[in-house]
Design goal:
- There is one protein chain.
- This protein is an alpha+beta fold.
- It has two domains: 133 residues, no CATH class; 72 residues, no CATH class.
- Helices cover 66% and strands 11% of the residues.
- It has a four-stranded mixed beta sheet.
- Helix 3 runs antiparallel to helix 6.
- The radius of gyration is 19 Å and the shape is globular.
- The two termini are 20 Å apart.
- The structure holds zinc ion.
- The site of zinc ion has 6 residues, from helix 2.
């Protein structure tokens, strides 16, 4: 468990978050000591990218008067939570948008900076082999992939699902959860069959179960 403060927000990175990042970074394929560095670079890029994502939510919450805002990175992603007066639907939509948008913007800025420095460098192959380049490469890839995925998939508790809830409103919560379940089944199947992915379908199964339980209670699971 790692705890620190960033822009005044308490940030917690739970052990499961490191474990999932290590798995995604290829920790199971480590055979030689030199295989460790790429995994550590992936983990570092992932944790920075996800903290930027949650920072986007947290800063927007603060802008709208949120208090006691905290950030937690857990197994499947992250959560920025606020106490105090509830946000309006419009504010909730903007808070949900801010995380992935800040994450994607940072990914694009780093991508442009790396592309420009690679063009002016005489030895781009040397640059590509360096750990700093690998770190930035993973940062760009994770930021764009996770940011866009979170935004476009209307599945709770992802940001796309939060935005859908903001648009449809609390009265249509059942519809939001039903759309969430259908979208999770479709995304999970596409990930498994066409993209040969492993973790995304598991995450979608987890989402279907959580949304189904919420549908039974007709309540929303929280979090951004
Ligand atoms: Zn988010």
């Amino acid at each position: 468990m790692i705890r620190f403060r960033l822009f005044g927000f308490p940030v917690t990175v739970e052990p499961w978050h490191w474990a999932i990042l290590a798995f995604c970074g290829g920790a199971l394929k480590i055979k030689e000591p030199e295989d460790l560095l790429p995994v550590l670079l992936f983990m570092a890029a992932g944790v920075v990218s996800l903290i930027i994502h949650e920072l986007g939510h947290a800063l927007t919450m603060r802008l709208f008067g949120g208090r006691h805002i905290s950030i937690v990175l857990h197994g499947w992603g992250g959560q920025a939570a606020s106490q105090g007066a509830p946000f309006s639907r419009g504010q909730q939509i903007l808070i949900s948008l801010a995380g992935p948008l800040l994450q994607v913007a940072c990914g694009l800025v780093v991508f442009i900076a790396v592309a420009m420095s690679a063009d002016t460098s005489s030895g781009s192959t040397v640059l590509e082999a360096s750990p700093v380049y690998q770190l930035l490469y993973w940062f760009v890839l994770i930021s764009l992939w996770w940011g866009v995925l979170n935004l476009i998939i209307p599945v709770y508790p992802m940001d796309g699902g939060q935005i859908l809830h903001g648009i449809l409103g609390p009265r249509r919560i059942k519809l939001t959860l039903q759309i969430s379940i259908i979208a999770a089944i479709i995304v999970g199947a596409v990930g498994l069959i066409y993209l040969n992915m492993f973790l995304l379908p598991i995450f979608m199964v987890f989402s279907v179960v959580e949304n189904y339980k919420a549908l039974k209670r007709t309540r929303t699971p929280g979090g951004w």
